[in-house]
Amino acid sequence: xxxxxxxxxxxxxxxxxxxxxxxxxxxxxxxxxxxxxxxxxxxxxxxxxxxxxxxxxxxxxxxxxxxxxxxxxxxxxxxxxxxxxxxxxxxxxxxxxxxxxxxxxxxxxxxxxxxxxxxxxxxxxxxxxxxxxxxxxxxxxxxxxxxxxxxxxxxxxxxxxxxxxxxxxxxxxxxxxxxxxxxxxxxxxxxxxxxxxxxxxxxxxxxxxxxxxxxxxxxxxxxxxxxxxxxxxxxxxxxxxxxxxxxxxxxxxxxxxxxxxxxxxxxxxxxxxxx
Length: 275
Hints:
Radius of gyration: 24 Å
Strand order of the largest sheet: 1-2-3-4-6-5
Number of helices: 9
Structural class: alpha/beta
Shape: extended
Strand content: 15-25%
Number of strands: 6
Largest sheet: 6 strands, mixed
Helix content: 40-55%
């Protein structure tokens, strides 16, 4: 029990780590490239499971934070591949933006809305960097249209391996979120006081029996979901291969080749070919 440590990239654990104000400040300052001293206040607005549709068995747990009373930040962790992630994050940032204003209010009440996506899969193929930041810019002259929407994407599989010496604050945080062994946590905590606070919070929640049960239930749900998706892909691939073999067999049959020859070439059973 004393050696058990939750994995920060399991969203339940990340949510509980963000309950620590110092850890929250350090994480946001690293991602948003701010001096921690400029972050006067951070307040968690809510953290809940957001489901894409009613039958969604897993859902995505997000943590929404109000910073300095002028910026809303939504942080999400996604462990399984989701090709529509960009559209999805845009949808929820737009929703977060429009929910701020009520009928009769002026547009100056609108706060900046930021999405931070921590992904355990590669979203941008062919791009080597683990971190990307997006704004609304003019196409050719690249000046800002508005600063009210901002997207930060951290792709954990692209994290460079090797020692932590010379790593940026953001890279240290990404390595902490991706870490699984005590030795990794110890080393990263020594490099950054905010990560040290996050690590202490991780140790506390890892020893809480109730939280551990919730964490393990969430980890199992993520694992079962990923396994289900893998098996569905395998079935789809096998069905595609079967249909492809049958299609080739039909073409060979139309050319007048014998059932035995087609069987040897495609593996489709002779009786099936004759039928």
